[in-house]
Design a protein that fits this description.
Elements lengths: L7 H8 L3 H8 L7 H14 L5 H8 L4 E6 L5 H16 L3 E6 L3 H8 L2 H5 L2 E4 L7 H4 L5 E4 L10 E5 L1 H14 L5 E5 L6 H15 L9 E3 L4 H12 L7 E4 L2 H13 L9 E6 L2 H10 L2 E4 L2 H16 L10 E4 L2 E3 L9
Parallel strand pairs: 1-2, 1-3, 3-4, 4-5, 5-11, 6-7, 6-8, 8-9, 9-10
Antiparallel strand pairs: 10-12
Helix pairs in contact: 1-2, 1-3, 5-14, 9-10, 11-12
């Protein structure tokens, strides 16, 4: 026989209080007699009462839940991003659900799922390459380090990716480099495109030609860094410098350099991206000149934007686009050549 589900009325009778009092305890109202609160909590524990989350959400019109969508969670950037979002949201009484997908089709299905419909808002480091599916979601949403040309409807917090690559390219040229390769992830999401544009304009402004073989686009993973850096280093006339487009590609390039018995900052120059506290420590240890993303600042800014929307601030205003500067950290991995 199926066991009867314990209700809020059962808890009230057990604790000799009204159902309204039980509700106030569950919602952590401040002005409740401590003795009554303790009695209700004891009843909840002894009866193993589990609140009906869905019903509660329907009554209040809020689920107190937000969703974070990221491509992967085995990357220091996304780990730190998620942890910061959880800590920030917890301060305001929100639960956080994390969903991972590298597939645009899968993400579209998830955005239409019941759990997404129940959420109050979404923080999205999306895998989608088109803006339209995101615009169809009738929930407050903030894009995290994702850029769509012409976006005027969805809030966004992003890094100044164009400026970073322009500066990095210029820095290498000023150190005498003319044969430099930019290794970057796949197209989409604006990050790769903005960084490629910065690289192209950096070359152009110093009179250097654009060569298709100087930009390699594949994925953002360590394996890609190892594979392509190895191919580059084995060429008869290899590049003198590599710019790795994110933290994992930087790690891969570094491993390829070491595998080939080369010395960083002597036999080859490298500029990378550090995107977490772990990266900062590792890159400093190996002397990697890099751009530093303030991941916690990105996460905190995204949370603030979402909370503002949830509280109705700027509801009728257009999209808010915030851009954060990438700090350039000069170490020893770039050598001056004549």
């Amino acid at each position: 026989m199926k066991k009867r589900k314990i209700t809020i009325k059962d808890v009230a009778e057990y604790a000799s209080v009204s159902p309204a009092t039980v509700s106030r305890v569950l919602n952590d109202y401040k002005w409740i007699n401590p003795e009554v609160k303790e009695r209700v909590q004891k009843a909840i524990d002894e009866l193993n009462y589990v609140p009906d989350f869905t019903a509660k959400a329907m009554v209040r019109g809020r689920s107190q839940m937000v969703i974070v969508i990221v491509p992967v969670i085995n990357n220091h950037f996304f780990i730190q991003l998620i942890n910061t979002v959880i800590q920030e949201m917890k301060r305001y009484g929100y639960y956080v659900v994390v969903y991972t997908t590298e597939s645009a089709e899968e993400e579209c299905l998830f955005l239409g799922s019941p759990i997404c419909q129940m959420a109050d808002g979404i923080l999205n480091a999306t895998s989608l390459k088109e803006l339209l599916p995101l615009q169809k979601v009738k929930k407050p949403m903030v894009l995290i380090d994702r850029y769509f040309e012409g976006n005027t409807s969805i809030d966004c917090v992003m890094n100044r990716n164009y400026e970073a690559l322009y500066r990095g390219t210029e820095y290498l040229i000023q150190h005498g480099h003319q044969k430099m390769v930019f290794l970057v992830g796949a197209e989409g999401n604006g990050i790769a495109e903005e960084r490629i544009r910065g690289f192209r304009d950096g070359l152009k402004s110093h009179g250097l030609p654009w060569r298709n073989e100087y930009v390699i686009q594949d994925c953002w993973k360590i394996e890609a860094g190892i594979r392509y850096a190895s191919l580059l280093l084995e060429q008869p006339d290899p590049p003198t410098a590599i710019i790795a487009g994110n933290n994992t590609l930087t790690v891969g390039v570094l491993e390829a350099i070491r595998n080939h018995g080369m010395v960083l900052g002597k036999d080859i120059s490298l500029i990378g991206f550090e995107e977490s506290d772990e990266d900062v420590q590792a890159f400093a240890r190996y002397g990697i000149t890099s751009f530093r993303l303030d991941t916690s600042a990105i996460a905190s800014s995204a949370v603030k934007l979402l909370l503002d929307r949830l509280e109705g601030a700027g509801t009728n205003a257009g999209a808010c686009i915030e851009s954060l500067e990438l700090k350039f950290i000069e170490r020893t991995s770039v050598i001056h050549i004549s």
